[in-house]
Automatic annotation (TrEMBL):
Lineage: Archaea, Thermoproteota, Thermoprotei, Thermoproteales, Thermoproteaceae
Protein name as it appears in the record: ABC transporter related
Naturally occurring in which organism (per UniProt): Pyrobaculum neutrophilum (strain DSM 2338 / JCM 9278 / NBRC 100436 / V24Sta)
Record CDD domains: ABC_Mj1267_LivG_branched
Gene3D superfamilies tied to this protein: P-loop containing nucleotide triphosphate hydrolases
Ribosomal protein is among the record's keywords: no
Keywords: ATP-binding, Nucleotide-binding, Transport
Amino acid sequence: MPSGLLLQASGVVKKFGGLTALDGASISVPQNSFVILAGPNGSGKTTLLNVISGLYRPDGGKVLYQGLDITHARPYERARLGIVRTFQTPRVATKMSVLDNVIFGHISADAPFEFGWARREGELVEKAFKVLKVVKLDHMWDRAAGELSGGQLKLLEIARALMADAKLILMDEPGAGLNPTLAHELFKLMRELTQRGHTLLVVEHRLDIAAEYADYMYVLYNGRVLAEGRPGEVLSDPRVVQAFLA
Ligand code: ADP
């Protein structure tokens, strides 16, 4: 695996019965980059994210992370290596405070290894405040998560990933349902996270906005990579335009 790469998925094949969702897809994700996974509906984006997070076992191909072959690693093993997946609909406990959601998101991911909770409580609270500050939600720390707006819930989901010491954050359509101003703010924050040592691989449809902030883009089509490169160049590639129209 070339140095500077955090993740390399090569020749990934995933079949569901007779349907081939991924047909030899290969992507490389450099350390501290913001990479977009784009493509029309059904092109295999979410399936690739699920293979990388360990939710699905591939039928072929390899996934390397920090040079380690994780193709067959369990999801919790990947989480301990710093691979954290967020979801389109944030999974929060609506009656719990924002702060507790950040802390307990972390505890449950780590539960079997957690001892001496009381001793660590102070540390965890301090860390939770730090990550809430990074996502600019610290002023909301004592509010119930159910009171947050759609955009703030996405920030909370990112805060939980940071609390879990995520190195590689896998995100499924974070921009969905946000107005353009909030989408700009969210992608800008994601860009800032790359300067704090995080790497983001993001399935996204809001390409006009996300393209301004991302370093690199892959376009999947029929389970393979159709185009890759700087987002501006990829989006003006006639094959990509055609794929989105088809
Ligand atoms: P995208 O995220 O690009 O919209 P997906 O990865 O969700 O595409 O899906 C790729 C193809 O695989 C689609 O044809 C979809 O219907 C199929 N697929 C995805 N997940 C499953 C599943 N769990 N069972 C059966 N087919 C699936």
